[in-house]
Amino acid sequence: MTTRPDHHLQPTTVDSQDSLRIEVRGDLDYASADLLVAEVTAGLSGQPALTDLHLSCAGLGAVDSMGLSALLMIGRRTTAAGVRLHLDDRPANLNRLLELTGTLEHLTAPSPVGAEETLGTGDSTVQARPTGQDANT
Predict the structure, then answer these.
(1) Which residue in 4, 63, 13, 64 sits closest to 38, CA to CA?
(2) How far apart are CA 63 and CA 96, in angstroms?
(3) pLDDT in tens, 108-127
(4) Are 55 and 39 in contact (CB under 8 A)?
(5) Which residues of 65-85 are buried (b: 16+ CB within 10 A; e: fewer)?
(6) According to its UniProt record, what is one Pfam family this protein matches (predicted)?
(7) To which H or E segment does residue 85 belong?
(8) What are phi and psi of 70, to 5 degrees?
């Protein structure tokens, strides 16, 4: 996928004590997927009390397979950190891609109350929560 200069990914981060909002503008593709993953990773590591990560997708342009891969990686990292992922204001093209690939529910399913699971990870145990939007977003 060729990205026009005016479509380069431009993440903007707005944070509070327990939530992080990243506004995504431009194309999420081969050339920019790592940028978004790095932005999210920095946010997750910089805020240990984080409970919610909101990716505002209203300004999102095209999304290719690497962009989808980045979203799935972000989903794995937020789950591992015990942070709930929200894909807010999804444009139709993103919804369609997620539906076609069978990942819509995986990335956006609401967490049932009390649905936290304990996952064993060798010597330690971590709390894992499903990612996705809740009724408040």
Answers:
(1) 13
(2) 11
(3) 876 544 444 433 434 433 33
(4) no
(5) ebbbebbebbbebbbebebbb
(6) STAS
(7) strand 84-88
(8) -65, -40
Q: What is the DSSP letter of 59?
A: E
Handedness of CA 108, 114, 119, 123 (dihedral sign): positive
Ranges of the chain whose pLDDT falls below 70: 1-7, 11, 15, 110-137
What local confidence, expressed as pLDDT, does residue 7 receive? Answer: 59
H helices present in the chain, as ranges: 33-46, 65-81, 92-100, 104-108
CA angle 119, 85, 42 (to 5 degrees): 90
> Which amino acid is present at 16?
S
Residue with tokens 């997708």: 57
The type of residue at 78 is: T
Give the position of tokens 């380069």. 8
Total-model pTM: 0.74
